[in-house]
Amino acid sequence: xxxxxxxxxxxxxxxxxxxxxxxxxxxxxxxxxxxxxxxxxxxxxxxxxxxxxxxxxxxxxxxxxxxxxxxxxxxxxxxxxxxxxxxxxxxxxxxxxxxxxxxxxxxxxxxxxxxxxxxxxxxxxxxxxxxxxxxxxxxxxxxxxxxxxxxxxxxxxxxxxxxxxxxxxxxxxxxxxxxxxxxxxxxxxxxxxxxxxxxxxxxxxxxxxxxxxxxxxxxxxxxxxxxxxxxxxxxxxxxxxxxxxxxxxxxxxxxxxxxxxxxxxxxxxxxxxxxxxxxxxxxxxxxxxxxxxxxxxxxxxxxxxxxxxxxxxxxxxxxxxxxxxxxxxxxxxxxxxxxxxxxxxxxxxxxxxxxxxxxxxxxxxxxxxxxxxxxxxxxxxxxxxxxxxxxxxxxxxxxxxxxxxxxxxxxxxxxxxxxxxxxxx
Length: 425
Ligand code: SAH
Hints:
Elements: H1 3-6, E1 34-35, H2 41-50, H3 55-71, H4 87-94, E2 95-96, E3 101-107, E4 113-118, E5 124-131, E6 136-139, E7 143-144, E8 162-163, H5 166-180, E9 215-218, H6 228-239, E10 251-255, H7 259-269, E11 272-276, H8 282-288, H9 297-305, E12 316-322, H10 330-342, E13 347-353, H11 367-379, H12 404-407, H13 410-424
Parallel strand pairs: 1-2, 6-9, 9-10, 10-11, 11-12, 12-13
Antiparallel strand pairs: 3-4, 4-5, 5-6, 7-8
The structure holds S-adenosyl-L-homocysteine (SAH).
Binding site for S-adenosyl-L-methionine: 222-223, 254, 276-278, 355
Binding site for [4Fe-4S] cluster: 146, 150, 153
GO molecular function: methyltransferase activity
């Protein structure tokens, strides 16, 4: 039916470091209905028009439906109380309001939550929520698996399965709001909640006051700049004042350094930038962040210097994983400072103690080493907080995301296959 026109086209991956093809994501739903989640207003209007509404009605309905979908988070057309009662079944026959399926939800002893999610075509990926005293950060995935193969990252040992669609990316944020009970209640005409609802609850943008989910980081599975179009389209819905209405200042996109896409990220998305730097010499960075062989340190730092919107008020975060005896010497710290100054970068450094995973070829630097490294950077006038590992007990910390299916060992998979065979025979 309408499915093909509603699907965004995925971006081809530039460069030779990514031999894995990225298949076109979505298979149309079997029931012929179209999932509206992930679509912007004009596309919703176009679908309504294709389904038979005249242009003016389609535009009006799209505006209403958009508000209900992204601002209020309703999951049925029946709940759209300002749409005529007869119109609601008409919508439900043709469209659905999707969410990623929750396979498993885990809570860490420190309050961090991790969800194992599944796409409609049965690919698993993860999302993490990290509550803090003054904020709550949702760590969102952009791909199922990853092509980058960073040596210290567990997700990097998964092969890339596919890009997530805009609906699957914005769907993570929507699911988190469902789980945290954080949709604005509002007081639209006809809504029967009026008693418990503050009059202005529906007004203005989504603020931090009293909210659990205040910030988003594109730091889950995948490289967001290798799925540029879908990430941009999803974040536009997140930032839309009549959508999820989260300020771009509360969103951070992290890249391992896909240099050719960085300027466009600044221009077309405009969120805060984080760069997974992790090393200051070619040799070490080539080894631990292999995309460095394609886009080297100088190019990367120049792209950071040129990043639209970066300023002292909106600094670029440089992530630096602390690997024992690999990148954690005093000289490394001093070289880091030198480079950041040479390129005049409005920078802050985020030191990440390495989170171990089974079979990882590195160890975490000692706490004394991390402290000393941080001091050198800090004494040069650059903020250098050490990121507290969160959710390690449920494998939710940086670099630990890898779905359960992929975590099974080869031997285990062979055993399962043999059992299945035996059961069939
Ligand atoms: N591909 C993007 C988004 C992933 S963000 C990027 O590379 O920036 C996840 C962050 O966690 C990155 O900075 C990554 O380098 C870091 N990371 C990966 N594995 C880690 C580990 N085992 N311990 C600590 N940090 C890790």
